[in-house]
Amino acid sequence: MSALLEVLGVSVTFDGFRAINDLSFSIQPAELRAIIGPNGAGKTTFMDIVTGKTRPDSGRVQFGTPPVDLLRLRESDIAKIGIGRKFQRPTVFEAQTVFDNLSMALKNERSPFAALGYKADRRDIGRIEEIAAEIGLADHLRRLSGELSHGQKQWLEIGMLLAQDPQLLLVDEPAAGMTLGEREHTTDLLVRTAKTRAVIVVEHDMEFVRRLACPVTVLHEGSVLAEGSLSHVTANPDVIEVYLGR
Amino acid sequence: MKNTFLARQPSVIVFILVLAVITLLATVFSEAYGSGLLPTNYVKILGKTLCLCLIAIAMDLVWGYCGILSLGHFAFFGLGGYMIGMWLMYARTEDIVIASMSKAALPPTPGEVRDAIGTQIFGVVGGSDVPVIWSFAHSLPIQLALVVIVPGLLALVFGWLAFRSRVTGVYLSILTQAMTLALSLYLFQNDSGLRGNNGLSGLQNIPGLTDIPQSVISIWFMWGSALALGIGYVFAGWIVSGKFGNVVKAIRDDEARIRFLGYSVEAYKLFIFTITAVIAAIAGAIYYPQAGIVNPAEIAPIASIYLAVWVAIGGRGRLYGAVIGAALVSLLSSWFTGGQAPDLPLGFYTIKWVDWWQVLLGLSFVLVTLFAPRGIAGMFDRLVRKDAA
């Protein structure tokens, strides 16, 4: 079984600082993976590279079968071929309704002309309602997303990811600022999503990672320090030294 | 689910009604069709103001909705004026030349007519040949098409270069200023083929309609302006209320985020930049026959800045805000600078509004920015909401 995303020997330097150092990583089509690591380990830069925001100095990034070279694509094209990203800070379009946010994310033709002629058909509305139910916002479709609570915004953003119908989801700190109940719901949502697609979760919170019960990749100084189950990596002396033992 | 465009843009119906009432009232009181209470001059001011409202809508689309602070849209407005002005001037001069030559013993050859037209139009800049860019000036349909094509193409090329290189924010504003300045400086040159600083004049005289008095023509143009404004408003309301409008607003609010949703921000920006340039050009093409003259000073960078000030004062991101701002500020501006405003004697100093109007305008701009960032329309909204609550 070939990997969905394959990152090979990638390095990137910002003003002399090596943010990513010969990093290799891969994930299968329906897999949940957590990435942990201390601040400055390169987690966000890794996501930037995969989504096309940052160009690496060397290395290869391939996606899908047959493999597509992501380094040659623009951000919007990478999003179109099936990589969705949720940012650390919830970034939804606050001046617009929950419905409109989801409708923009929905997998449809993206050109200006298509958008001008677009009219939400029954199928699209059904899909939006389905996603809204999934993320617990079914009763809030008509509200401005700026009025939502922090946790609801996080869910809306996850909902927007789902609406894009990507093969790979990159989720940056989904549980930040959530209450315990909200966290449980988020965990369920991610685990369920990972049954049909690949999900990479970047998280600081070990408790949350434990609840995801999935393989973990530990990043340190821009490369992979350890990989395996959470209990396996937390037993690794290197990991304890750089991350957990502080 | 009520998701139709009128439900999302309730201001459209009100706006069309108000526009129709104003235009009808002006007609009823006009010299040509009514009681004569409203001098022709005022009808022209009204007509011109409606055109300025139309370009303000274009500015609101590109800035208020898409977040691109273009300080160059008056260049497109002026170009539209030039394109229609070429036909107006050429065709009218042709009529005059043919009329004066018809008294000669031999009928003039087409070459002679063309030479005479060239001398008539370009004598003022020391030329007698009709430049190549005037090749189609005899044809109204072609020049009308050029009103859309020339500014549209300029916007398309400029926008493509700028947006592709991801020039945003204040850098883009500076670039658009540079564009309008360059165009204006080019047109100032006598050998630009558009009569240098003289510009194109006598545009109020419509070829073939010279027997009809200006009082009548001004009413027609006012109706034309009102029609264009009405269509422009409906069109703008339509494009901002659908999914296209949502994406455009999303670009304004968070460009990077909408890019990660798979939208090509550049394509949308280019689309809205070009379409608003075309709207501006159409507004200019209706404006300048009422103004009578278009010259390079109209395209000066300051004109485009004023446009931004109108929209800011009126309230950006609201179509009626742009219209209110443009109408109010441009009318006040011509009142203050036209010498009609009474001077304000302070005893030790007399405030002459011709000089002080700019200070007043600048001050109100600062006040609006500080205390009413959503402009006049924003205060409007607040009042309406209070009533509803």
From TrEMBL, chain A:
InterPro entries for this protein: AAA+_ATPase (IPR003593), ABC_AA/LPS_Transport (IPR051120), ABC_transporter-like_ATP-bd (IPR003439), ABC_transptr_urea_ATP-bd_UrtD (IPR017781), BCA_ABC_TP_C (IPR032823), P-loop_NTPase (IPR027417)
Classification via PROSITE patterns: ABC_TRANSPORTER_2
Signal peptide: none
Keyword check for Transmembrane: no
Domain ABC transporter: 5-246
Pfam families the UniProt entry points to: ABC_tran, BCA_ABC_TP_C
Keywords attached to this entry: ATP-binding, Nucleotide-binding, Transport
Single GO molecular function: ATP binding
GO CC, any one term: plasma membrane
Keyword Transport: yes
Name this polypeptide is given: Urea ABC transporter ATP-binding protein UrtD
Organism listed in the record: Pseudohoeflea suaedae
Upper classification of the organism: Bacteria, Pseudomonadati, Pseudomonadota, Alphaproteobacteria, Hyphomicrobiales
TrEMBL record, chain B:
Keywords from the named record: Cell membrane, Membrane, Transmembrane, Transmembrane helix
Subcellular location, record wording: Cell membrane
Topology relative to the membrane: Multi-pass membrane protein
Transmembrane portions of the chain: 12-33, 45-64, 71-90, 142-163, 170-188, 217-240, 267-287, 293-312, 319-336, 356-376
Protein name, entry field: Urea ABC transporter permease subunit UrtC
Location (main, coarse): membrane
Phylogenetic classification of the source organism: Bacteria, Pseudomonadati, Pseudomonadota, Alphaproteobacteria, Hyphomicrobiales
Pfam families reported for this sequence: BPD_transp_2
Organism: Pseudohoeflea suaedae
PANTHER family, alphabetized: HIGH-AFFINITY BRANCHED-CHAIN AMINO ACID TRANSPORT SYSTEM PERMEASE, SLR1201 PROTEIN
UniProt keyword Kinase, yes or no: no
One of the record's GO cellular component terms: plasma membrane
Domain of life of the source: Bacteria
